[in-house]
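agent> Task received from the user: take the single chain below, predict its 3D structure, and emit structure tokens. No templates, no multimer pairing.
agent> Plan: (1) validate residues, (2) run structure prediction, (3) serialize to tokens, (4) report one or two observations.
agent> Step 1 OK, no nonstandard residues flagged.
tool_call: predict_structure(input=
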Amino acid sequence: MSTTKKIAGVALAAALGVTTLSACGGGDTKDKPAGASDAPKSKTVTLVSHDSFNVTDSVLKEFEQQSGYTVKVLKSGDAGAALNQEILTKGSPRGDVFFGVDNTLLSRALDNGIFTPYEAKGLAEVKPEYVLDKEHRVTPIDSGDICVNYDKAYFAEKKIAPPQTLDDLTKPEYKNLLVVENAATSSPGLGFLLASVGKYGEDGWKDYWSKLKANGVEVVDGWEQAYNERFSGSAGGKKAKGDRPLVVSYASSPPVEVLYGEPQPAEAPTGVSTGTCFRQIEFAGLLKGAKNEEGGKALVDFLVSKKFQEDMPLQMFVNPVTKDAALPELFTKHGVVVEKPENVAPETIAKNREQWVKAWTALVVK
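)
tool_result: status=success, residues=366
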């Protein structure tokens, strides 16, 4: 997710820069996907994204062959940095479609008018709770949950039940066990702050963080440091001798630990505290002033197609948003379903994000 990310799938992020994901192929165009045009085979469509965008080569090649477009991806840092660049180049965008703006940044993107409305073919298959913009300036593409993860071995050894809720994290038995990311510098850090706002309200979240601080919460700059250095449950954290068995990460992190485990474990070594989560939703939009608007529309259609939606979980470790997309076995076996994540309306986030982060920094970091 945004973020970022962003995300438990950081291991798959490609290097910053413009990348042609695959060459345009030939092939019969009789069975064009919805939204495809009769554009010449040499036409290029450019996707601007954060660094965590990824897709299986064969899946992308099939789209290219059927649509007649060659896809290029311009990776531009994290979601916030990528969005900033599009706002600065409004009207003369660097590409045709932007992917990766999430619900924590959505109102900022919409208020700056960087997107052209387009109702994607296949939007009817998107679960309605993810459609946050009724003008269709952006299309939901994926979702993910920012949650506290726990080290199963630690809690089994100590014979302590792992925490399951935000309230639990303030209890004495979890003192000096939690590491979180800085809300001013990290997407999951901001998401976890927003989880507390969603749970305790605009008047109660500061009191909650005062309790967390008194209970020994540790703050680091970003996800990589928190998860792969300080957290005792991850493969990286074990190597770094991390001593914090609780970390803010993603609900998709346990499947990642299984996939990249050496040897691959039969069970995920980490668990998810499902009562601590914030739901992140990522969107794509047709950029205003796009040089290849028709190609951009076809690309947005592709991003909500069943083919891409089912490919996405193991490429970016996020969840599909369409009703007909099936999750891979790795997710169904080792992942968790977060039934009631915390949410905060994008317009409320946009109005208060800066002052919340400043207040959080003064309270927790300084």
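agent> Step 4: summary for the user.
Residues 1-42 have pLDDT under 50 and may be disordered.
agent> Done.
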